[in-house]
Design brief:
By secondary structure, the chain is α+β, with helices and mostly antiparallel strands. The chain is built from seven helices and four strands, in the order E-E-H-H-H-E-E-H-H-H-H.
């Protein structure tokens, strides 16, 4: 029962994103982790500061854009990005009418209209993608990612896991 849906208006259309099923969402989280964690070396985080806190600061004070872009280009995988985008498009319905189609109050699956709908509108595509990722991965991406990874990899958790077997 994954009826958790969230909507947002972007570029004159309303997008309703339904959360991915947990197994698929977790697979996508692992894929995001493999892409994002190596890039964290481009961020200088002050001790005790959460990555989410950095969103409220001047990014030039903590971010080496050149190093981050280099790491992103080395770690991003086109096939993984397409897999993620396809999964999120399949969990999104589009509503409204405009020059890219009329979807009305009933809506339509974004996955069926994706190419035509976003052709030449990559800003709106990226805004939708950011929204869909926030709906599905917001708790993972906005929290203390480094702290979470340390917690998951900590010897005490590994020992508890072994003891339970």
């Amino acid at each position: 029962m994954r009826e958790q849906k969230t909507s947002d208006d972007i570029g004159g259309y309303r997008y309703r994103v339904t959360m991915l099923p947990a197994k698929l969402g977790f697979r996508m989280t692992v894929m995001l982790t493999k892409t994002l964690v190596p890039m964290l070396g481009g961020i200088s985080v002050k001790k005790g500061q959460k990555v989410a806190d950095l969103m409220n600061e001047d990014v030039s004070s903590f971010l080496d854009f050149g190093r981050l872009a280099e790491r992103l280009s080395k770690n991003i995988d086109e096939e993984n990005v397409q897999t993620l985008v396809n999964a999120l498009a399949e969990s999104t319905d589009i509503f409204g009418k405009g020059d890219r189609g009329e979807f009305g109050d009933a809506g339509a699956p974004l996955s069926e209209h994706f190419d035509d709908h976003f052709a030449g509108r990559y800003r709106n595509l990226l805004r939708w993608l950011a929204f869909a990722m926030k709906v599905n991965f917001g708790d993972f991406l906005s929290g203390d990612v480094i702290g979470l990874l340390r917690e998951v990899a900590s010897p005490s958790i590994l020992n508890r896991s072994r003891a339970a077997q």
